Amino acid sequence: MALIVQKYGGTSVGDLDRIARVAQRVGRAKSDGNSLIVVVSAMSGETDKLIEMAHKLNDFPPDREMDLLMSSGERVTAALLAIALTDLGIPAISFTGRQIGLTTDSVHMKARIRRITGERLREAVAEGKVAVVAGFQGMDETSGSVTTLGRGGTDTSAVAIAVAMKADLCEIYTDVDGVYTTDPRIVPNARRLDNVSFEEMLEMASLGAKVLQTRSVEFGMKYNMPIHVKSTFTEGKGTLVSKESSEMEEVVVSAVTYDRNQAKITVTGVPDRPGIAARIFSVIADHEINVDMIIQNVSEGRSTDISFTAPKTEMNRAVNALQPLIKELDADHIATDEDIAKISVIGVGMRSHSGVAAKTFSSLADAGINIMMISTSEIKISCVIEAQEVDRAIRILHDAFSLALPPDQR
Ligand code: ADP
Ligand code: ASP
Ligand code: MG
Known about the structure:
There is one protein chain. 34% of the residues lie in helices and 25% in strands. The chain has eleven helices and 20 strands. Strands 3-6-2-1-9-11-12-10 form an eight-stranded mixed beta sheet, sandwiched between helices. The chain has two domains: 3-175, 3-Layer(aba) Sandwich (Carbamate kinase), CATH 3.40.1160; 245-410, VC0802-like. It has helices at residues 16-31, 46-57, 63-87, 119-126, 154-164, 198-206, 214-222, 276-286, 315-329, 356-366, 390-400; strands at 3-8, 35-40, 92-95, 102-104, 113-116, 130-134, 137-140, 146-148, 169-174, 195-197, 227-231, 239-242, 255-259, 262-271, 294-296, 303-311, 334-337, 340-346, 373-377, 380-386. The protein has 410 residues and is α/β, with parallel strands linked by helices. Residues 9-10, 41-42, 47, 73, 135-136, 151-155 line the site of aspartic acid. The site of adenosine-5'-diphosphate has 19 residues, from loops.
């Protein structure tokens, strides 16, 4: 008998009919003789609705209260799914994050999981019940407050629970039937990948492919828990995210991603002397703002501009944090740009092949797309471009690296 952890995302549990259908799918896996832990997201749109409500009452709602508020979406679905399962005669019990002993650090709205004791999960499974867990949430191990794991965090709940419970299988059910060479909603001829290495998936997730939250892939990689991404609505092989194999190196570029959630912040006219960048980024770090790309313009004389990207949701906080520095450093001002996006080309094969950067830049240049920032690592090349060019850029790069299915296989 296998222990399976299944995760169902927002669209998969988007209305009562869908919850009833998920209950049937869970029932089938159970009647095949497996033990099941099912981790659920809030019904689609629910988390956004809760956030919107908070912002109607307060421009800067306290993070602690936001976490309690947002965690309620997942609780609703968990209870409803347990109710639907019971209706089918399948014994089920729902739990919040706290009830399964999922503790985190104290960083509200993007907490990191510290431990999962899982006692009540073990009890439920031993009693033959389906354990339904509200994803995305935990409990601050020091204050006891509810925390959430960042947008898309139910993926991380699921993989972490699979690791903690030593599950045989971790399945992520979503509204696409696997991980694709790029977002299939933008490029209809994108190709489903049978296998992806943890490392590539980690890059893809952190560079915008929202099909898996980055931290869920980190967990899978750290504890070697393979992750199966499958469709809730259709049968099929899906994609297996697992350890790198030698064949994977043969593919130079395996995916193209985009991220529209970044903003560019520029501190202009900063004096060109040692210690300035350190000062700017230590202030940013003190405010726990995740910086992604950084560029410093070539200095012509005594001053320079420093630009960086950070999540749009953190832009105002970053600007407020930096404001006092303008005077202290004798800089000019702070400029922001929200109409940007980052596109990236990813592949473990880049380690052993050259020319990917040249091809990326020339393909974009031929299409008249301006690149504002560039960053590279061993297995990826990222460019910041204007937000309105994203769809076109993705299609161009997807074609340039021949990622589409050959016409005869579509
Ligand atoms: P869930 O609600 O199930 O967690 P998400 O909306 O978070 O689902 O993630 C699934 C979505 O990710 C898909 O609908 C698709 O538009 C998007 N996506 C972006 N890049 C990719 C990719 N490379 N492969 C598959 N899906 C992708
Ligand atoms: N409901 C949360 C979100 O929308 C978590 C998740 O769906 O994974 O981000
Ligand atoms: Mg998701």
